[in-house]
Amino acid sequence: MLQMTKLTKTVIKDRVRLRVFILVLYCLIVSKVLEQSPDVIPKCGPAKLWDHIPPLFFSFCSRYMSTQNQMLVGGVMVGTGLWIAIIFSMRTVLKGLLSWHGWMFAPHGKITCQLRIWLILVKVFSGMQTPMLYSFQNSLPHLPVPSVKDTMRRYLDSVRPLLSDEEHQRMQSLALGFEKNLGPKLQWYLKLKSWWATNYVSDWWEEYIYLRGRGPIMVNSNYYVMDFLYAFPTHLQAARAGNVIHAIMIYRRNLDRAQMKPLFALMNSVPLCSAQWERLFNTCRIPGQETDTVQHMSDSRHIVVYHRGRYFKVGMFYDGRLLLPREIEQQMERILAETSEPQPGEETLAALTAGDRVPWACARNAYLRHGKNKKSLDAVEKAAFFVTLDDTEQRYDPANPVESLDCYAKSLLHGKCYDRWFDKSINLIVFKNGTLGLNAEHSWADAPIVGHLWEQVLSMDPVKLGYSAEGHCKGETHHNLPGPQRLQWNIPPECQTMIANSLSVAVALADDVDSHIIPFSNFGKGLIKKCKISPDAFIQLALQLAHYRDKGKFCLTYEASMTRLFREGRTETVRSCTIESCAFVRAMINNKTREEKLRLLTQAAGKHQQMYRLAMTGQGIDRHLFCLYVVSKYLGQDSPFLQEVLSEPWKLSTSQTPLQQGELFDLVNHPEYVTSGGGFGPVADDGYGVAYVIIGEKLINFHISSKRSSPETDSHRFGNNIRQAMLDMLDLFQLDKKDLK
């Protein structure tokens, strides 16, 4: 049974207290009314019952309370009412203050008088010295609905460099027809939803973009996160698993207690939405015939570990406490030493989660809902998270950097297609040589949430927890600790056939992935900032230049931005291929003067920043169009314009993974102790997926993916073009040699 989420409890906590107080008082007064006038309700009815309550209340107080107690009760009631009024007023005022986003468009590095006053007011009405994770949820504004006219204008501007004059004229005609005819009707319904829904996008985005997809989520939806690039804390697989599992459980404990600080923007003043943290743990995607669901448990006291085709349930608590790292290592050692063979169908069972969703739903309903299969499946789906003790070795090898990193990325993205439970919110993969990584399901939250967890885990693992000289976790083993429990399965031949079919689909998909990772160390954001250019805009323009050199044409480009300035916000699309970026790329290709290239680069970067800010403040293009399309489907009114827009392929899909807790890492003295980021699979069959993480001042890691089956793409070729584009753009600024050091 699904439990009420922590966020919902936090949201209604104050209301529950108030309602209980009022209910008790109401019942007490009504009982006295009925004692003195039992015929009140039949005579006057419930509607006029309150006419009798005020005098009877004061009569009750006078009869049963002393004057001193009456004053005390009155003081408590007045104080309670005042407290409620103050809290409500502060939240309302703060919500109004946070609805203003003028600070986003202020000149970089300049604080105007208006902005200074606004910041002071936000600080005053925030009213908390040490806020908890969900403290600001009630104060966050709702995501606004842009006007149809503005969205049409921005859309037409975004596709102008991709269309010929005739094509653009036709699209203008479609857009104008939509704006004048069907658009206002759909907009009215969407506005209506925005008034009562917490967020008019998020529920539909989760359902229609993620949960209703019937294709494999492996590669197509799930994403991965990597370990340290240059640091290797221990070579012992069980020890690394012990420390990291313990660190993850500590993070979960802090999350359950809402003791983590919320994230802020703008000098730690503007809170970001924390709703996505709700389902980080104890969560699993459940397959369905038409749509999947997300199952979230309020608590789970175990994990499930996969090793050499066998599943083990491992309790995380003993004698009323969380297991220590050395004790978890002890449990992992027991699993590694286990010599039993997999049961029939057990080894490749998880391939069902890697293949198409409908066969998985059918197999689950037919063969895994009864007896020992149901018990074992419940253990997997209700686990805090899933762990794979992988029997391969993955690591960055300086002697073979390209192949080692590419193989590492593919292993995290899909593995053998049957050794990760892709439906779990997070899969922790620990390789034989102690390297590790994560594979995350995408429907429940976006990558920054998993990134936040991973940063804290990696900062805790080698420094706070540490290892002994032999590489073991610190501490002692526990001889009375019960061992892991082997999960039992009874998988019939019919189900094994379905597993084999799903595995063949998954293997074909995995083999088609062409992954490439570039640790770009020539320069980083420190040097880019000296050019007075936004690092993200610089990289996006480099991607545009690289793509044109790679394919000889421009393409529709997706960059994910966050909308967590609003309650339950997730992402919005920044369309990075603009008129200005194309002009800059043409100038580079046609070898214009350096001054002209520099002017166009600056202009394109400014346009990109403007679009990014609009997306973050709820004035994007694609989520609005998506929701209008959903409304049109609900109403049964097709729109040629919306159908064409929603079917346009994203040939270049990009995302920046921000480093959110830089204070956890000493990048100056220990640059090796930082995550190398993560990546995802290609979105289009003939396109590229590019994830990048800016690490410190001197390193940018690119994770590139494409499909081998496409004659148009080559991840390594595109990687070389990215590297050269970055260097060529930096050369335009002609920085002094001292700046390049």
What structural keywords apply?
Cho/carn_acyl_trans_2; lipid metabolism; Fumarase C, Chain B, domain 1; 741 residues; single chain; 25 helices; membrane; 6-stranded mixed β-sheet; carnitine O-palmitoyltransferase; Chloramphenicol Acetyltransferase; alpha+beta; transmembrane helix
Concise synopsis of the structure shown:
The chain folds into 3 domains: 6-139, no CATH class; 146-213 and 619-648, Choline/Carnitine o-acyltransferase (Fumarase C, Chain B, domain 1, Orthogonal Bundle), CATH 1.10.275; 216-511, Chloramphenicol Acetyltransferase, CATH 3.30.559.70.
CATH homologous superfamily grouping of the largest domain: Choline/Carnitine o-acyltransferase, domain 2
Proportion in helices: 40-55%
State the low-pLDDT regions, or none: 1-23, 37-50
What's the shape? globular
Radius of gyration: 29 Å
Taking the alpha carbons of the first and last residues, their distance comes to 59 Å
CATH architecture of the largest domain, by name, is 2-Layer Sandwich
Q: Can you tell me the CATH class of the largest domain? A: Alpha Beta
> How do the strands of the widest beta sheet line up side by side?
13-7-6-10-11-12-1-18
Summing up helix and strand content along with how strands pair, one would put the structural category as: alpha+beta
Mean pLDDT over the residues: 90
- Output the CATH topology of the largest domain: Chloramphenicol Acetyltransferase
* Share of residues in strands: 5-15%
* Tally of separate domains: 3
Number of strands: 20
Query: Tell me about the biggest sheet?
Result: 8 strands, mixed
The number of helical elements comes to 25
